[in-house]
Amino acid sequence: MIVDLQRFIANERPFWNGLEKMLDHLEIEPNARMSLAQLQLFHQLYERTAADLAKITTFSSEPETRRYLENLVARAYGEIHETRGKQRRFYPLEWFFHTLPQTFRRHVRAFYLSLAITIAGCLFGGMAIAFDPGSKPVLMPFPGLLQDPRQRVAEEEKATHDRLNGWKTTFSAELMTHNIQVSVFTLALGMTWGFGTILMLFYNGVILGAVGVDYIRAGETQFLLGWLMPHGVIEIPAILIAGQAGLLLAWTIIGRGSRLPLRARLREISSDLVTLIFGVGCLLVWAGFIEAFLSQYHQPVIPYNAKIAFGGIELILLILFLAKSGARKTRKAVNPDE
Amino acid sequence: MKTNVLSIRTPEGIMFSQLLAGPVMRFLAWFIDQFCIQLLLTVLEIMLGLLGVLSPGFAFAFYVIGWFVIGIGYGIFFEWTWRGQTIGKRLFRLRVMDVEGMKLQFNQIVVRNLLRFVDQLPAFYFVGGVACWLNSRCQRLGDLAANTVVVRSPRVAEPDLDQLLAGKFNSFRRFPHLIARLRQNVSPMEADIALQSLLRRDEFDPVARVELFGDLAAHFRAKVEFPPEATDGVADEQYIRNVVDVLYRTSQVPPFRPKVQNSEPPAAALQL
């Protein structure tokens, strides 16, 4: 019971100030580590301030002090009861070469599912074009793809001037932003229990399959590979990884086989989702550059074989990156004694 | 159950309550943010106009990237640097916080902002608005995925006690021990009822006013009994005036003024 409020505030104020100072320090220096003595002091100050708040809550005349104490206790509560890993300083290279591939591998089954859905879409699109070439305007409602492949190849190979001269950077920027938007959308649609993500992946597969079969039927396989491989070997896996993130989100919401409540499950995957989608962003920036500066130039400017070889090398590097990068660090973390 | 309050109880038994922001308030804040985004894009366009003289291709490319980065990054940047607030949220006194009162993390901010793509479908945040309306904590899909809520801290107008209580002698002041007991026995809600009744006294019908202050005075008399020399000849309304005076004007010395802004909510969102 508080008899003399002014004296109570005067007596307790040093403890509140002490707690506030420690909290300020922790917030400014997220990497700071407290000694055992400091931790004990921090906990004592928290408990004392919480007790003061409990006392003053019933007091009718000090709303300002009550709000101040609520503020302090809530901040300290967040520090003490936070069970997630402390936010460390961000190291871009470590994130790219360790965290991203490790996260990818941790949820690789969602990637395989994403790949399977896209392949199913490819098969559907390919068969639709093979058995019903008239369905092309429905499957690929884009003017650039409706042209006859042979005619397009002939026009591209005879081109004497650079169509993108002076606008390659703009084209590249448009490709990057559009593809990143599609990827984020694919991830976000995971909130529809995955239905939206599956539809997006399937639809992308349908277009890819339809375009592929259309060019193969026209005997332009080399052009197709030379056109799509330099950027496609990065762009398509990037969309698949976005699908992986969307399916991961969907699986977390469904929660089959987990006893954790939804909130706890979502907390667990939150950082993985962000890692995956930022990784997708990096891949799509690269793909955007390549598509604008390389993919749009065909034989005789750049030989098809050179473009196909470049695409092949990229694909091998990407597979190695996703499969191996950061693996040594994981093993060390599992067996720290080694 | 739908509620407009988020309560967090710590293991120590301390409870915080935060007012949840409704869809309309959030939509207004979003509208302000959209205006700010447009403003930033206009500034960017003007700046790139100079670059456009040298290279139109580069200028347009920068504009495309700027449009994308500002559109997506605006919410992430401000909510991270301003601890859960954007310009619109700050104007409407809203704030994003962790649903369990924990530290708001960067991942949560990114997830809730990226999931706007679904929330804003098909237009004007229809999906998000419906989700917010149906959810007990008024969360849109992005908030659900990120484990966040948007709370509001309305500005509490400080009553002008000096004007309200000016020029009146308070006979209770001669009994500090009884004043201390009264402060101890009166709950914050009871104190607020007494204050509000004084602030709105002119809105009441004369008969209702006499009855109201009669009931209130009886209620507070039962809390602490002041001696006859303090209460003799004091009308019921004056009695309540005296009560409010001793409850809200605790001392002649300046009250404790915390360093932090008191308008900030007591949320863990404060320490990102």
Structural overview:
The complex is a heterodimer of chains A (338) and B (272). In chain A, 78% of the residues lie in helices and 0% in strands. Chain A is mainly α and 338 residues long. Chain A has 2 domains: 5-81; 92-334, no CATH class. In chain A, helix 5 (108-131) crosses helix 11 (221-254) and helix 9 (168-188) packs antiparallel against helix 12 (262-295). Chain B has 272 residues and is an alpha+beta fold. Chain B has 2 domains: 5-154, no CATH class; 161-248, no CATH class. Chain B has 13 helices and 4 strands. In chain B, strands 1-2-4-3 form a 4-stranded antiparallel beta sheet. In chain B, strand 1 and strand 2 (15-20) form a beta hairpin. Classes of the chains: A mainly alpha (338), B alpha+beta (272). Chains A and B meet through helix 1, helix 2, helix 3, helix 9 and helix 12 of A and helix 2, helix 4, helix 5, helix 7 and helix 9 of B.
Order of helices and strands of chain B: EEHHHEHHHHEHHHHHH
Strand order of the largest sheet of chain B: 1-2-4-3
Termini gap of chain A: 59 Å
Q: What is the total number of structural domains of chain A?
A: 2
- DSSP helix fraction of chain B: 55-70%
Strand content range of chain B? 5-15%
Number of domains of chain B: 2
Distance between the termini of chain B: 30 Å
Overall pLDDT of chain B: 82
The quaternary organization reads as heterodimer
Coarse structural class of chain B? alpha+beta
What Rg of chain A, in angstroms, do the CA atoms define? Answer: 28 Å
Biggest interchain interface, per-side counts: A-B, 70 and 71 residues
Number of strands of chain A: 0
Question: Could you state the order of secondary-structure elements of chain A as H and E?
Answer: HHHHHHHHHHHHHH
Main sheet characteristics of chain B: 4 strands, antiparallel
**Which range does the strand content of chain A fall in?**
under 5%
Radius of gyration of chain B: 26 Å
